[in-house]
Automatic annotation (TrEMBL):
Name under which the protein is recorded: Probable PfkB family carbohydrate (Sugar) kinase
Cross-referenced SUPFAM superfamilies: Ribokinase-like
Keywords: Kinase, Transferase
GO CC annotation, single: cytosol
Residue ranges annotated for the Carbohydrate kinase PfkB domain, each copy included: 14-319
CDD domains, sorted: YegV_kinase_like (cd01944)
Kinase as UniProt keyword: yes
Pfam families the record matches: PfkB
Length: 338
């Protein structure tokens, strides 16, 4: 089926996200109040959350980016659409006129963990045909995020996965997933279909360990220590989990960079670029977006992760309303050159 929103003519490989996009409202408080309590927040900071950061990062690498998820109609949806326009992101997914896109209130008191209050909107109310008209073109990279796997829209993702099949070599596009910390809440059927599709998995260490536990991969974390023990453990984690997934695996470890393993290959460490963070928000979305963009450009997985490591390092040095800011391609390459 022809997707008219994607146009006709010469195709440039693109990053397409099935992920959900919403508005984050950051509230800094001295202390998160108990039930019945009261707190004052200074300077509310709205920003776009969810898979938007993956798309924004890919766009900054100079790759066409498209959002195939659902957008609503209202104040929050208008904010999202304007941000898409400002960042060169094209919305090719469904539009709902009967409800707005959702938002999340994020309470931060300076503690390591933040408190989240979610109000779901159009993005979470898809169904089995949500992605039926999506036809990826050769060399596209289709991104799936864990935030799309726990509500009604998950049935649409599942339908897309079944259509994609279980043999990556038979697809002329690449599937990539960053499962996020919600992986532990994904049901067994959905997880099984994800594993069978054999996408590129991009996880942080916690997500990788959760996935290994869910799948029964042979991992022993008792040897992890501060220092040399991490290297040994990462090889064990990637070897065990990668063999279980039978798919490319990327495990991010902050300033240490990332470890990668491709099916049948050895686990390789791609060194990071240590720097000092100016905020506590993760640059995982930046890393995933850059990796997807580089894969769309035809780079190998190792090359893509190396550039993503550099971009993420720069991102955590720059904050806009508490959100890491992904650099452009030239900045990332310049850091590698140094």
């Amino acid at each position: 089926m022809l997707n008219l929103k994607r146009g006709i003519g010469t195709h440039e490989p693109s990053v397409i996200s099935l992920g959900q996009v919403w508005v984050d409202i950051m509230l800094n408080v001295d202390k998160v109040p108990a039930q019945g309590g009261f707190a004052v927040a200074d300077h509310p900071k709205p920003s776009i959350g969810g898979s938007y950061r993956v798309l924004q990062a890919a766009s900054r690498m100079g790759v066409p980016t498209e959002h195939a998820g659902i957008l609503g109609n209202g104040l929050w949806a208008h904010f999202i659409r304007q941000s898409f326009q400002d960042n060169g992101i094209t919305h090719i997914g469904q539009d709902r006129l009967d409800e707005d896109s959702g938002f999340r209130v994020v309470l931060s008191s300076g503690a390591p963990k933040k408190t989240f209050i979610a109000s779901y909107g159009a993005e979470a109310h898809g169904d089995s045909d949500t992605f039926d008209t999506l036809e990826p073109q050769p060399k596209d990279v289709v991104h799936i995020s864990g935030n799309t796997l726990m509500d009604h829209t998950a049935t649409g993702v599942d339908g897309f996965l079944l259509k994609a099949g279980t043999d990556p070599a038979a697809r002329d596009y690449t599937l990539a997933i960053n499962p996020t910390n919600t992986l532990r809440l994904v049901n067994d059927h959905m997880l099984e279909d994800l594993v069978l599709a054999r996408p590129v998995w991009s996880c942080n260490r916690q997500e990788a360990m959760t996935l290994a536990e869910r799948l029964g991969a042979p991992i022993d974390d008792s040897k992890v220590t501060i220092g040399g023990g991490l290297d040994d453990f990462m090889h064990q984690l990637c070897d065990g989990l990668g063999a279980t997934l039978r798919a490319p695996l990327v495990v991010r470890v902050g300033a240490r960079g990332a470890w990668i393993r491709e099916p049948g290959g050895e686990t390789i460490h791609i060194e990071g670029y240590p720097t000092k963070a100016v905020h506590t928000r993760s640059a995982g979305g930046c890393h995933t977006g850059v990796m997807c963009a580089m894969l769309a450009k035809g780079h190998s997985l190792a090359e893509s992760v190396k550039i993503a490591n550099a971009a993420a390092s720069i991102a955590i040095q720059h904050s806009l309303n508490g959100v890491p800011q992904c650099p452009d391609y030239d900045e990332a390459i310049a850091l590698i050159g140094e």
